[in-house]
Amino acid sequence: MGLPALGLLLAAALLRTEAALPARSFQIDFERDCFRKDGAPFRYVSGSVHYARVPRPAWRDRLLRLYMAGLNAVQVYVPWNYHEPQPGVYDFTGDRDVEAFLDLAAELGLLVILRPGPYICAEWEMGGLPAWLLWKADIILRSTDPAYLAAVDAWLHVLLPKVKPRLYQHGGNIISVQVENEYGSYYACDPSYLQHLLGTFRALLGPEVLLFTTDGAQVEELRCGTLQGLYATVDFGPDSNVTEAFGAQRHIEPRGPLVNSEYYTGWLDYWGGPHASTSATLVAQGLADMLQLGANVNMYMFHGGTNFAYWSGADFKGQYKPVTTSYDYDAPLSEAGDPTEKLFAIRTVISKYADLLDVLDVLSPSGPIQSQFPLIFETVKQAHGFMLYRTQLPRDILAPATLSAPPHSICDRGYVMLQKEYQGTLERDGQTELRVKGKAGDTLDVLLENMGRISFGANFSDFKGLLGNLSLDSRLLRKWLIYPLAIDAAIQQGWPHAALPKSSCRGRAGPAFYTGTFETPGIAWDTFVKFPGWSKGQLWINGFNLGRYWPHQGPQQTLFVPGSILRVGCPNNITVLELEGAPPNPFLLFLDQPLFNRTFNHSPMDKE
Ligand SMILES: CCCC/N=C1\SC[C@@H]2[C@H](O)[C@H](O)[C@@H](O)CN12
Q: Would 494 be classed as within a structural domain?
């Protein structure tokens, strides 16, 4: 029994990627004033989420929402006192399992900017420093006081060995590590203290990791907060002048990437004061201004969460000002993790300046395989589904050139994109040539679909992939990156399902993921889904792979949806990988009977 026809809004997440090169590196390019990840220019758009302010069961939800907002990194404080309640007594379990939080971020394709302090401020109790330091009443915190440094070094020798294997250079996702926090705002102004920390961080993390500092965007604050060997970054909010604020950073770092490590999306609350409120429009405009400059931005906070137990800190501005339990911060994700108008405004800005999703980090966690010529599925041990083949145009192709494959070498269909724009489809027994033009270095992608191996007949060692070399005007293309795609695993882990409310989207030509949700009308019976105006692709509902659809080819026009995979009383997640082109206003229909032949039943929908 099928469900009545349901319209379905879908949000698009396009197949976007960053070119990745084999060696894992994350460095500063002082010539090009940018970061480089694996040798390629890289800009992060990051958000602060403090695991200590979110119960562990909610970590995945919050990080997924950050990811689906288009951010590619998460900035993480490590509160020392959260993990060392007593001198020499450590706790990294449950909500304190910082390694689990970092690994979850990696699983979701997020890079990490780690801020282990030892002082972090953050309106956290004693700025993250353990209260037991004060058992020595005359201790001088955040200085070269031997009692303080002894406790700091003991703590860092416990924490940083947990960090090192997670550094990007070591195969992890931590791209940079901050030393101390706004030290330039502290009265002590003890450069030997920063020097000591630099020595300890280098000793425990190694020479490759990018170490940095953060200070208010004022020259006098940067004076004491910065140190040779630590890249100086600044923090400022939407009420600051972007040019002046980055001018302060340039005062210390005349070359290198512009970095705002704390772009204030809201603000903290004190007991007795008003709840902070910062205009979404103002925040979005400031973000756009910075992204326009090519700056790297971390939004503080993306999700504030809660100061549970006794963890809220205080400020002192002439008088003691305790901070409230809620760290909502008027952040894009509310204290309870709900998207706000500010999140949508930020997402819109990011979508204009950055690839909304860097999907290859998620879909191909094993990373690319570098090869002079294409490798087949069997060589890389990919059984089913899809692989992405990527190379760069070796020269300017100002007049259309012929991209061609040897006959029958496309096994089975290759969807070709140049600079992420769809060029057409290469076929096993059909079209093996396309006309393309572009500039040297443009990214050429071939998304290769395995349509199923021969199951009968003499020779059914039916190898899959690009079985021959592609050429451009008869000159072979070389230096390929090959990405085995683990799409089903990613979808079963919740990707790319929009953790944000549905938003309508325009269909586009070529490969793209479309995702959304739908409700069943109180029943979960067998049904059939129709794809009005779609071309060819793959469908998942609630992580179940329903198979290939190809209404453009027919004869089958619907896919069977077993009632057993549907949910009643809660949203059903749907993900579509459309390979050749979705209709301008993409939607799906659920019918109570199949359509096996190209003839339509003359419903008005069939005209779509
Ligand atoms: C003008 C800001 C001076 C104090 N710095 C603040 S108030 C809110 C934020 C957090 O405390 C954050 O931990 C600080 O690094 C920067 N900052």
A: no
